[in-house]
Amino acid sequence: MKIATFGMRRPFHPVLMIPVLRHPAMKYLLAAFLLLCAIGVHAQTTTLIKTPAQLSDNDDPSKGTSTSTGTTLFCTDQSAFRLTSSLTDPTATGTPVPYTSWKWEEIDENGTPGPLPATAVPDKEKLNVASATPGWHTYQVTAATGVSECPADPVIFTVYVLPNLTIKADVDPANNPDLTYCAANGAPTGPKAINLKSTVTFTIPPRKIAGMKDYAVSDFELKYVWSKEEVGVPASKTDVGTGADYTIVEPAVTTAGVEKKYNYSVKVVYTVKSCGDYTAIAQSGGQNAVITVTPKPGKPVITIQ
Fold this sequence. Notes:
Distance between the termini: 128 Å
CATH class of the largest domain: Mainly Beta
Largest sheet: 6 strands, mixed
Helix content: under 10%
Low-confidence stretches: 1-21, 38-45
Strand content: 25-35%
Shape: rod-shaped
CATH topology of the largest domain: Immunoglobulin-like
Radius of gyration: 32 Å
Order of helices and strands: HHEEEEEEEEEEEEEEEEEEE
Number of helices: 2
């Protein structure tokens, strides 16, 4: 039998908190903690692209666009630009050392330098790009000062071309809505509401490069504007709502009038860069949906003869 004294070391035995964790309250607390962690991770991974800087990674052209200012972000129909390499060795001291040749290439989808496309034409220190397809494009230049066996290290430059958007708008058939309603009742609500939904996709898939994120439509913030326009009445279009989806909301109108028909359409634009408007008229059964508003007639007058 050992007796503990002040001069003796007691053996250390780690104590596990298993009995405490088995308590029902602790289980609920642990579950809540894990849920909050999951929400935090999800929030970090679903940040929508709103600015050109979000496509750049500290100006590292192997991970993102070569600038964060938007000069390397293009719309598909405005993707003509020129790259210009240095004329002299920027690291040389004293007398400038001119480059005598430049070899331009484009990085392929596997991350390997290769031939330029027909729309990119080299001209010594310049590379003239007439148009670039949607997605990532990384161009590489290798300069030499006269000795082909000893060229400078290659330098890359990366741009991103926003794909065109294709948008569809449809009347949601989930509640089988009637597209005609009485003006005196206003637009139907609840289960009979007329809901309009939009779907946005890239017109063609964007070009990929190994190591670069393959962006989807859902990665970009989009702005939506819904409008209504009276059929056959020019310049009658008015904005009525925002958001990817829209529920028709119209107040009751009890004054006498004539029957009116309306088309609803949605316009979508990128937030990150203005690339024109992408629009679609809401469809129903494969045709433009026509929302008919019928006025409530006044009471007749009875006469006697």
